[in-house]
Write a structure and sequence with these properties.
This protein has 8 helices and 7 strands; from the N terminus they run βαββαβαβαβααβαα. With 256 residues, it is an alpha/beta fold. It has a single domain, classed as Rossmann fold. It is globular and about 55 Å long. The chain starts with a strand and ends with a helix.
Amino acid sequence: MQTVFITGVSEGIGAALALHYAAQGARVLGVSRRPRPATLDGSLTPEDYACIDLGEPDAPTAVQTFLQRRQVHTLDILVHNAAAGWYGSPTQQSSASIDQLLQLNLYAPIALTHMLLPRLRAAHGVIAFISSVHSALPTPDFALYTATKAGVDGFARALRIEERGKVDVLVVWPGPTRTSMHAKSGVPPERIHNKHYASPEAVAAAVAVAIQRRRSCAVGAGNTLLRWAALRLEAPLQTMMIAWARRRSLRKAGGE
């Protein structure tokens, strides 16, 4: 039986992944800052769920205690899914909010990876970082979020080389997904286009395939092309295209 540990498991992509792996017969453990929702009843037991806010500095220690209490000595799959965004100019974001976003999106996955590597090596496991297609793009109004995802990408690339032959490391780059993240980030309702976004289940299915193949991937043909172009276009052209797209979006939303 595989043992799978997922962060940000209470909703969205994390909850869909928990359901997928539970259906495969895996033991699923997870953490989220919210109390365990009833929607996870078929995915993981109350004992295998911990209410831990990974945006707090002592979170890695709390996760270590939780896994020791649950007698988890090896891990087959670790999915770093927990993340948050913040919409607007960085000049409008408080220092406390900046610190918490860096803690949750960047420090927590690095610290948890450091702590859990022995368990993953014991099973020749897989680490999957859920990043964003925007990590390779200049993304106005999401500057700090983009920076944290770019940092995760850099850490994962180096770790993949360091752990070769011991643990497989991969990154999955989704585009906008139909979750509550945009609203929680403060995105104006008129700029949230859920009907055009991928469902959490579709993204989770792509993540599961990437883990099975032990290979990084972008989710969907459009995002694959977007990431390919972002990594190859010259920076001035890339910035010009993003600026044009932003102006167009604002005009449609009745902005500037």
